Amino acid sequence: MIGLSLLVPATFVPLAAMGGGGLLVVPNQHFYIVSAVSIVAALIAGALALATVQIGLYRVLFLCLGFMSLCAIFAVHGLTTPGILVPNLFSEYSGSAVAISAYLSLAIPALFFAASYAPGLARLESRLPFWPAGWLVLAVVIALVVYAGVAIYRTWLIAALPLSQPPYSTGLAILSIGLFFFAALRQARSYRRARLVSQAFLLAAFVLLADAAAAMVLFNPWTVGWWYYHLLMLAAVGLALNALLVERTRAQTLRSVIETALELEVSVDVEELDFEVIAALVAAVEVKDRETQGHNRRVAQLCVQIGRQLGMSASELRVLARTGLLHDVGKLGVPDAILEKHGPLTESESAVMKTHPEIGVAILKRGGHFKRELLGVLYHHERMDGSGYPHGLVSDAIPIEARIVAVADTYDVLTTDRPYRQACGGREARRVVEEEAGTHLDPHVVVALMRALDRRENGTPGNTVGARALRRVADERSPVSNHRTA
Q1: Does 485 fall in a domain?
Q2: Is residue 163 in some structural domain?
Q3: Which of 290, 325, 329, 395 is the most exposed place for a label (fewest CB within 10 A)?
Q4: How far is the C-alpha of 364 from the C-alpha of 380, rounded, in Å?
Q5: CATH number, domain at 246?
């Protein structure tokens, strides 16, 4: 498919040799094919809009705005076809609304598509809130509505613009081609890594849109070559829609389809490297508490997987990743003698251990980068029945980040060896976690964990331990016991 799309420019040669081919002046048929392109683009924009709400990333938003603007401006291109809604003003002006809309229908989407693949966007997204996206969408919608209104009801105002005449038309076409190929090259990186069909379709769509921009400027209106660029655009949006459908038909959610096609998975490793202070603190905790090597990263991974099952946005997943990495940072303030003790903790030692959430918050406040993460760190030992610490919060009063960390932390503690007990298998750990649901752990989060584990694990049962041993493990996790690990 990609190879065929790259060979499309070769078909320009015979058309150019024929001067673009003969004339085919059929305004109604032009309106129909343009409407078909606009409808397909609208379907893609709608799907991407839903995904944008779920994922909460500017990259998906820019793709959505690209197809939205393609749909709207190309629809104006169809509606301003001479004889449909507006008169032919070529005799009075150097351009027309139909021609100008044609060039803008590719140039404006190309800007959004290129912005979606801009270098450094992922790093910027990790620091920018997503709420300004609503204002951006509103501004784009208003601009498109105003343009459509002027193009249809004040056609001569658009026709007076020189955008459809050289050198402006040539400049718009070159700009569009360059931006589409930039997006295609960036998408090609994802395709080379994963070799997924959905990624290939999206890559081919960008290439075909670049080809369409070239055909538009090369051939005169109503020639066969000019009709050719409409067909290229129809093929491009068809491939883009197919990129969404090809994985959706395999029972994948819309969100997972978009994330797969664009490689949007939130990575704990990336979050750790993105904030140098996180990497330093995680390393410091693991040096101090050597018995729990890798615990923070495993909890962070589980937190992200649980968050995905709960439908949380990418920005919320990043908060979860950082919270999981940092939830035990307060252990830096706990004496080594307590952390390294193999036997049960005394009452006074347990009291000291229970101060680590508040110590962690005090440490993170000095970093200045964290907000919601502080809530997860401070309250990840609170329990649904109010028996937790440090404040004895009950049920939904516990922040969702803390409830998720508590579940992920519990499961990882159960499935890893500790100085005072051996790890239990995955099946037994699941049973213990389910027993804690509703009393210590949020039952909705527990269900999300089970779904995440079902996706991750192969179903092979782990080591078998007795029910009494399981209860002992659960008691060790209880906030009223000699809590050692979380």
Answers
A1: no
A2: yes
A3: 290
A4: 15
A5: 1.20.1070
Q: Count of alpha carbons within 13 Å of 437, Cβ hemisphere only?
A: 17
d(CA 12, CA 326): 58
What is the C-alpha separation between 29 and 177, in angstroms, rounded? 26
Q: Is 67 left (phi over 0), alpha (psi -120 to 50) or beta?
A: alpha
CATH assignment at residue 338: 1.10.3210.10
- Summarize pLDDT for 295-341 with one digit per residue, the tens: 888 999 999 999 988 988 888 888 899 899 989 889 888 888 887 77
Q: Do the beta carbons of residue 391 and residue 341 sit within 8 Å?
A: no
Q: What is the pTM of this model?
A: 0.70
Q: Of 262, 281, 296, which marks where a domain is finished? A: 262
Amino acid letter at 95? G
Structure tokens that stand for 107 in this block: 């140039």
Give me the half-sphere count of Cα atoms (radius 13 Å) on the Cβ side of residue 449: 31
C-alpha Rg value of the chain to the nearest Å: 29
Contacts 24+ apart (CB under 8 A), 119-126: 121/58, 121/59, 122/59, 122/270, 123/274, 124/58, 125/57, 125/58, 125/59, 125/314, 125/315, 126/271, 126/274, 126/318
What are 405's two structure tokens? Answer: 């960390």
Same domain, 116 and 146: yes
pLDDT digits 0-9 by tens, 183-233: 999 999 888 877 788 888 999 999 999 999 999 998 988 898 899 999 999
**Cβ atoms 105, 77 nearer than 8 A:** yes
Helix (H, G, I), strand (E, B) or coil at 25: coil
Distance of CA 300 to the CA centre of its chain: 18
d(CA 235, CA 241): 10
